[in-house]
Amino acid sequence: MPGLRLTEAQVERLCTADALTSASALRTLVSAGFLRPMADGSYGRTDVFAGRRDVTQDRSSTGIVPSPWHRILCLVELENEGRGPLKVPAYSALRYATTLAVTHRARITALQVVPPSPQPSLTAAAEMLKKTVSGEAFRELIDVQVTAGSANEALVRVATEVRADLIVLGRTGNAASASWSGLPEILRQVPCPVLIVHPSGRAAVA
Hints:
Distance between the termini: 42 Å
Radius of gyration: 20 Å
Number of domains: 2
Oligomer: single chain
Mean pLDDT: 80
């Protein structure tokens, strides 16, 4: 509503949302320029309160800081040797990466690594991956890339090429999985933090 001003606590009650969801939504709307933080801790529409003296310009006082992430690299795997839907760990990882991308106004590179031999058609694989992620929410934030070789080597190389600020991996618990093998080596070589997402949707930073 144009003249409405709400605090985070009021947003929680009005929308029956938890504190984390409310805070993330408010910060996203501020980053998008739709809302403005007020000196008293409330939020109001930018087009209504743009000229008000009680609008604070000090982001540090409201807990709003510049986003640390602009490019998120997410390693994905497809079922049926790359011809099916996303595997469950990859699906969980991509959904988590999408949530971060929306909150922090970042873009995602969904990376699929295929075996180097026999030499696959990377173009065909990329088209399949595009088709697979086309049904995802906020798909306009997702770029796809397919490369051949070792998943460990590809992660390091592509993370450097796209200047990734964060890498998101799906946790499978399977040592043979491309997204899980050689994790200690990956952590030593990649140029940014790695976030591991369990199929349940919970995440941890390594």
